[in-house]
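Hey L., structure's done. Input below.
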Amino acid sequence: MELGYARVSTSKQDLARQVDALTKAGIDPAKIYVDKKSGATTERPGLQALLGYARSGDVIVVHTLDRLGRTVRDTLNLIYDLHQRGIGFRNLADPIRINSTNPDDPMGQLAVVLLALFGQMERTYAVERAAHARTVATDKGRRTGRPSVVTDAQLAYATQLRNGGATISEITAKTGLTRSTLYRHLPSRPLETLTADTAPAEEKPSPSTTPAATSPAAGSSACPNCGYEPAARRDLVPHRADLATIWLHVDECGEVHESRHCARCQPHGHVREISCSRCGDGPLLTASPDEDLPPAILTWLEGHGWTTAPELVCDVHSRGLPT
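Output:
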């Protein structure tokens, strides 16, 4: 039996071209497994399901070899494992056609190595070209990345609202911008100039060097990350609303770290909003908005009572509690 596999790197890309080619090659659409995941990871549900379903004598068909993986090592290891299980492999559109019905053919082995190497080289060169283009554009004062969804008028209005004491929830309602967009674009609040009239009555706590993941205690208004505390009473409400937001960060080891930030020390890079499908509330993730939620984040959400499939639902609505 022939089984198909198609993959694109992001959820916004289209699988139709690959699926159409596999269908025209005689593969039943019900036997075509798909993924919208980067080839740099082996945690691909479609691929894992395909490997679990395939049996000795089956043949896995892909449009091009680089759909299986982006590195030579992973691709060769996968094809070797298929060979050990008696599962064949062939491609459709590469300049060199591969058919593993004779896996001991040295020319077939060479073709696999060459195609895998070319795929990895092209990926490396593409990353280098993109990085160089961004550097040149930045040096010339041009903005890189996706077009901004925030106009100067919206940003000025949002800044005016925040300076007037509005909370982030109130600003999103009045401007139509999302929380992640606001946190990324709103400038940090300027440092206050304390005079005899505005000097705090008591000494402020010294800044903490260790970010705290716990909720600010009742009556506490010092940022657990940088120690900042507003002197003016009108700034306390939006300040505490900022501190109520949980920020999540996944480190290189895949560990999830929680922190809370005031408007002065909050991250201003890529921010991903994790929203409950019922109430729209949730933590913020310091990651590219185009990326899928990492497995570690899904585990964190489930550990905090969230439902993650088929849609994101916060712990309150998962338990059916009144809001």
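Confidence is low (pLDDT under 50) at residues 191-195, 198-219. Strands lie at 2-8, 32-36, 59-62, 88-91, 247-250, 256-259, 272-273, 284-285.

-- N.
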